[in-house]
Amino acid sequence: MAKRTFTLFVGDNEIKVLLARGKIIEKWATIPVAPGIINSGVITEEDKLAALLRQQLKTSGIRTKRVTLALNSPEALFRLVNLPQLPLDILPEAVRREAEKVMPVALDEFYLSYQTMPKSRDEMSVLMAIYPRDATDRLVKMVRKAGLVPHFMDLAPIALCRLISEPKAILLSSQTDYLDIAIIADGLPQVIRSLSIPGRSSSLSAKLDAIKEEVERTVAFYNSSHQDAPFGSTVPLVVCGDLLESPDSQQMITDRLGYTVSAPDFPLDAPPEFDKSSYMVNVALATKTIMPRLSAVNFDALPPVYRIKRLSPVKILVETALIAGICGVIVLAWAYANAGPRLETLRSQMDTIQKSIGAQQTQIASLETSINQTQAATKPIEVTANALDARRSAMAGSRADASGDIIEIRKLLPPTARLSSVTLGSTINLDGTAATTSDVYGYARKLRESDRFTACLVASINRVETGNNTVTYNFAIVLN
């Protein structure tokens, strides 16, 4: 069964959640947030926001706990730099030193995350980002208070870059008061800017005046250092967010900015009523686990302090053996020191024990070598175990969903109708008998209006006359 992926994106005036099973979008919701609870990307009232989120998850029937987050912060800064190929043990320090040189602010109040990508035999590209500690900590704490477990975290503009397959493009994403602009070349974000723009109180025309100026400034900055391959008006402008809320928005953007406007790639399957442009950040987050190879960009900005840590059973075994060995030596030493009249006898015994200890130390050294080899051999097993854990969790969730579906189906059944069979699969098929056609259509309407099913189809109704002139109706209903 396909794995469920749950994503969450917090803006200044709303939270967007999305649940997908494999590549199929199952559930989504936008949670309005009162003014003042979030300011400039920083959550000021964690408890209130967590309560809103808990209630919406309950209403939507979303039970998945692991969540992939997106941070939306105008204070985030991004750089793509080239470094020589470095050993893994010195790479973090080298990246931090480079960040201190290229970032225009001190790093003390920021988290630093990065992703390395091969560039040549001797060089690698490093996509690095810094983002505020306070905003990040508050987001993670709020999510935990809502009963969720952060699994991955991304920064909204970097996540959206995963949905652009063009080798060269300009990304333009607008979320209320914020604008993200990214210059993408060779499939990688070369320049990313996050800034404030006029909010919902401003017209689209007023927004476009400010956006045009910022796009021109960003392109000019990129072209100044890439004169051999500058960006011109033929480069596609990939637009998402609230800029496309009205039907004529796309043409207005094309006319005002002078670029051909297109939408990001949409690699998931969604029902017709799903608003693709509004949930693009959530869709991009979902591809991190569903399709990790979709793009070379797969950034994890979740600070290490919040990541799930697993203890190695082999490490625990070695440490326990060492402690037991030390305790044994202490006990032997105590017995030797307090032997009294039996001292001479114990001396010979001690010699034997010391020789045994020496042999055991040799065995321990051999065991440690064997353990190291075992650790290397168990890595594929751990990967398989993780996959099995995920599959078991998905199966448990499916069983819970099926049980809830059946309860709802029986609860809404009219008293004048009865079910002869309920078949569970990719769809739920109901067969039964009702006294009137009104009972059948009323039952279907109640199923459709419930929160558990996205679609309800009356597949057939057949009139049946019995010998005593009684009329009943056999029906078949299909649920998604």
Work out the oligomeric state of the chains in this entry: single chain
By CATH, the topology of the largest domain is Nucleotidyltransferase, domain 5
Low-confidence stretches: none
Radius of gyration: 31 Å
How many independent structural domains?
Answer: 4
CATH architecture of the largest domain: 2-Layer Sandwich
Work out the helix count. Answer: 10
The CATH class designation of the largest domain is: Alpha Beta
What share of the residues does DSSP label as strand, in percent? 25-35%
Helical content (DSSP H or I, runs of 4+): 40-55%
Helix-strand category: alpha+beta
Total strands: 19
The whole-number mean of residue pLDDT values reads 84
Instruction: Name the shape in a single word.
Output: flat
Identify the notable features of this structure and list them briefly.
41% helix, alpha+beta, 5-stranded mixed β-sheet, flat, Nucleotidyltransferase, domain 5
Describe what you observe in this structure.
It contains 10 helices and 19 strands. The chain is flat, with a radius of gyration of 31 Å. α5 (204-224) crosses α6 (249-257) and α8 (313-337) runs antiparallel to α9. The model has no long low-confidence stretch (mean pLDDT 84). A hairpin with a 5-residue loop joins β18 and β19. It has 480 residues and is an alpha+beta fold. It folds into 4 domains: 1-158 and 268-309, Nucleotidyltransferase, domain 5 (2-Layer Sandwich), CATH 3.30.420; 164-263, 2-Layer Sandwich (Nucleotidyltransferase, domain 5); 313-397; 413-479, 2-Layer Sandwich (Dodecin subunit-like). The strands form 5 sheets. A 5-stranded mixed β-sheet has the order 3-2-1-6-10, sandwiched between helices. The chain has helices at 46-60, 91-102, 133-145, 156-161, 204-224, 249-257, 280-290, 313-337, 343-412, 437-449, and strands at residues 4-10, 14-21, 24-32, 38-39, 42-43, 66-71, 77-84, 110-118, 123-132, 149-155, 168-175, 178-185, 188-196, 237-241, 261-262, 417-424, 428-434, 456-465, 471-479.
